[in-house]
Amino acid sequence: METLHLKNVSYDYTTKAGKVHALRDATAVFEAGAVYAIVGRSGSGKSTLMSLMAGLDIPKDGDIFYHGENLRNMDRDKFRREHIGMIFQSYYLLPQLTAVENVELSLELAKYKGNKRARAEEMLSLVGIKREQFKKRSTQFSGGEQQRIAIARAIAADPEIILADEPTGNLDNDNSMNIVGILVDLAHKYDKCVIVITHAAEIAERADVALKMDDGVLKCDFGKEMV
Amino acid sequence: MTVLKFAFRNLIRLPWRTLLYFAIVFFIVLSVSASLFVYVACENAGEALDENYVFVASLVPRKKDSLALRDIGYCADGTEILSFHVSMSENNGVILGGAYMQRLPEKTEIANAPSAWVDEIGARLVAVENLHLVPSFFSGECTLQSGTGITEKGYAGERAELVIPWRLAEKYGVSVGDTLIRRYYRDDYETYIYLESEIVGIYKTSAISPDENDDPVYIPLAVAELDYATLISERQTPTSELIIERADFVLKDRNAFEPLVLQAGANGLDFRRADLVFNNGAYDTLSGELRSITSIAMLVLFGVLAVGVSVLVFFTLYLCHARDREKTLLSALGMSRGGIRAMLTLELLTVAVCAFLIGGVAGYFTADAVCGYVNDSVLTDEEISSKIEGTGRGSQTDITAPLEQNIKIEISVRSVHVCASGLTVNETKMPREDEIGVSRHLYYRIGNDLTDMMQGKARVPTSVVGITDMSAVKTTVWDESFSGIRVFVSEDFNMGAMESNRIFLTPYDQNGYVSLKKDSSSLGDASLPKNTSVRIVGVYEENEYCSGNDLLVCMEDYHRLYSEFSITDESFFFERIGTVYTKNEP
Predict the structure, then answer these.
(1) Other C-beta atoms within 10 Å of B447: how many?
(2) How close is the nearest chain A Cα to the Cα of B321, in Å?
(3) CA B464 to chain centroid
(4) Min CA distance, B17 vs chain A (Å)?
(5) Is B332's CB within 8 Å of A77's CB?
(6) Does any domain span residue A225?
(7) Is residue B571 pLDDT above 80, yes or no?
(8) What is the mean pLDDT of residues B285-299?
């Protein structure tokens, strides 16, 4: 069953240089239990696509549906709180908070009903952070660890969709593979719809579906199946 | 709740950012509030200074005969003055309030008048510049029953007009349009003059007078002046001697000086000198210092506001920009834009409010400390005293009030304290048991009868010495019963031609003064040069405090005498004590 459905989505904005068509008539369907890789050059419209899928913005043309419901008509803040987990290239951990507090942050916003601290600790353990490190400030972790904390934060509220924007962009090869492994596991073991924006070919290769963004146009690539 | 929790957690977890923001706001509020408190304290001090000083605009006419008495009223018209005094070269004749008017039973030839006066009852004449502004008319206590009241012709001195009380009109059967003869007499009753006048109004009064003669007859001031001139000429005193040498206007504050001078000039008073005389040369120093402090306070206020607000705006923008990632994250996690804005605003507001409150309180105490510093350094006694010597006075002529020295003013954010020589205004300094307070002031002794004064007898400068503890001086008392101002004289006291133990004292020297009090609305009655009588009740033995022609009185009597001659309201002059001696070490 389709989780997220992009139907003829277009987006443009105006700069001093003129009008930029960031996304042109993009159509795609994303389902749970699979890893989707969207690859493309810088400025090809990948991040625009991600912010539209996260409900941070709305398309100029076309629609995005979440389980058949148009995002235009939804409370998109609530949509993000409950159904979206986001991972960024530069982690976006709050330096004033500890590792566990950073994870708790998403639970607090999502108004998580259970024990937030226990859930946060569980998620940190899941991504391989040791218990004795839970109360360390986020700035005291390495890049790979910080990204794992960010993944723990993204999945803590149990969202259906994980959106990752260049999650391995700042990491070395070993850490990158580690993170990609976690993301693949999230899709395959935990039935999440993982959408990764990247320009790393090795990630695209490990994805179930690879999509290519080229000058705002979304198309299938690498011989992978286009859903 | 989430917003609240996030905001406070951020404030606590980012102490340096919080403290820096707090420090900026705190510094701005501290500086601004301290400047404002100091500014207000100085403004209040300025007002208190004005209230505690006597400002006299002393106008000297260019030509000796260029100014008539009534011109003084015009000069003061429209400006706020408390009272004025006119110094004249000839003072014996202005007896407007002392003149009597009587009516001839029928229209009688003036030449035959004296016989007709014998049995008639007189009425008190009061000269007015504007009848409607006489307090009793102004308040509605008196109203015109018939007639027009005094007309322009009357006020201009062209026609002698009278407004009489209804009791007089009824008793003598006179009415508006009738002619009355007014009689003036010299103080020695040797000379009378008779002048015709017309009744232009009869007034009724709601006041109950025990004596029907208490209700005055009103006559225009200009006419009264002419009467006076006539009387003077009858006494072989040339009219030209009725000249005003100087007019002193007691002003409400210093700012009233310029408008008064302009007003006087606009009304034709061509003056040779217009001086501002005040009772303490320190005024300029003190007000100058206060103005300087006020300017500095304003400079600090606007400087801090300009720089501080710029820094604050810059820092706020920087903080908001520096937190873009945090805002992006929170937005990505599903926090609404309103929630993010609320969180940031709450953080800034919390810091700002705390800084504002603490800064305000700190500003208050800082201002108090600044005031203390200013009191101890800029507004000190020593500083003022040293500058008094260099401050010239506008006029060398003696003024009715003694001049004070060494007024000290202390500013604070709570109140302003003005004192003179360490004494609080309107408070009596009470010397301790081992101390004696002594005050001394120069008056002029006229003689033992008012006629002495009217005859222009020489006035002898005489110091009156007040003492707080009479038992410190050995005295011999002749008269125990007298309850007025009791004076003791030395064994060497020069009695001169005095025949009784009564002495008339005046604050004026030989040139004399005519004192016209101006109340809030009108020129009131004129009076004799101020004088008061005291009685010699004993003799004092030689002592450290007084001798020769000095008159010794107890301190209470000293203050009674002093307030008698106050040029403004009596409450202004505090009951001061000039010098405090220790008893064993005078």
Answers:
(1) 21
(2) 15
(3) 24
(4) 11
(5) no
(6) no
(7) no
(8) 87
**Are the CB atoms for A30 and A207 separated by under 8 Å?**
no
Directed axis angle between helix A143-156 and helix A99-109, to 10°? 20
Question: B341 and chain A: CB distance < 8 Å anywhere?
Answer: no
Say whether residue A81 is in contact with chain B using an 8 A CB cutoff: yes
When comparing pLDDT for B545 and B428, which is higher? B545
- Tokens 């009655």 — which residue? B525
**A90 contacts on B by Cβ (under 8 Å):** 325
- Quote the ipTM score: 0.86
**Residues 2-21 (B) with a CB less than 8 A from some CB of A:** 2, 5, 9-10, 13-14
CA dihedral B445, B450, B454, B458 (to 10 degrees): -20
Structural domain contains residue A123: yes
pLDDT tens-digit profile of B137-187?
877 788 999 999 999 888 887 888 989 888 888 877 778 988 777 766 655
Domain-by-domain residue ranges, chain B?
2-52+283-383, 55-84+243-278, 96-236, 423-582
Q: Is beta strand B100-102 parallel, antiparallel or unpaired with respect to B179-185?
A: antiparallel
- Name the B residues in 286-325 with CB < 8 Å from any A CB: 325
Chain B residue numbers with beta carbons less than 8 Å from the beta carbon of A78 are: 334
Q: Select from B96, B112, B61, B123 the least CA-distant residue to B229.
A: B96
Please report the DSSP string for A1-28 in residue order: -EEEEEEEEEEEEEETTEEEEEEEEEEE
Q: What is the third-level CATH fold of B55-84+243-278? A: Alpha-Beta Plaits (3.30.70)
Which chain A residue lies closest to B333 (C-alpha atoms)?
Answer: A81
Q: Could A80 and B5 be called an inter-chain contact, meaning their C-beta atoms sit closer than 8 Å? A: no
Q: Which two tokens stand for residue B357?
A: 């409150």
A150: containing domain: 2-220
* Inter-chain touch B333–A82, beta carbons under 8 Å: no
Is residue B209 less than 8 Å (CB to CB) from chain A? no
The enclosing domain of A45 has a CATH number of 3.40.50.300
Residue B280, phi then psi, degrees to nearest 5: -160, 120
Mean pLDDT, chain B, integer: 71
Select from A78, A96, A108 the Cβ nearest to the Cβ of B2: A108
Q: State the total domains in chain A.
A: 1
DSSP B255: G
- In the prediction, which pLDDT does B224 show? 74
Residue B366, pLDDT score: 92
Q: Quickly count: other Cβ atoms within 10 Å of residue B417's Cβ.
A: 15
Count chain A–chain B contacts defined by CB atoms under 8 A.
47
Asked, for residue A97, whether it belongs to a domain, the answer is: yes
Give the pairing of strands B161-165 and B192-205: parallel
**pLDDT at B100 > cutoff 50:** no
Q: Which two tokens stand for residue A82?
A: 């409950």
Q: Does A80 touch chain B (CB under 8 A)?
A: yes
Give me the half-sphere count of Cα atoms (radius 13 Å) on the Cβ side of residue B57: 28
Query: CB-based contact (8 Å) between B415 and chain A?
Result: no
List chain B residues with CB under 8 Å of A108.
2, 5
Decide: B489 and B501 in contact? Cβ < 8 Å: no
| Torsion angle (degrees, nearest 10) of CA B575, B578, B580, B585 | -150
Q: Is residue A14 part of a domain?
A: yes
Q: A87 - beta bridge partners?
A: A164
Q: How large is the greatest C-alpha to C-alpha distance in chain A, in angstroms?
A: 53
Q: Cβ(B7)–Cβ(B348) under 8 Å?
A: no
pLDDT tens-digit map of B360-419 = 999 999 998 988 888 887 776 543 333 333 223 333 333 333 334 456 677 888 776 665
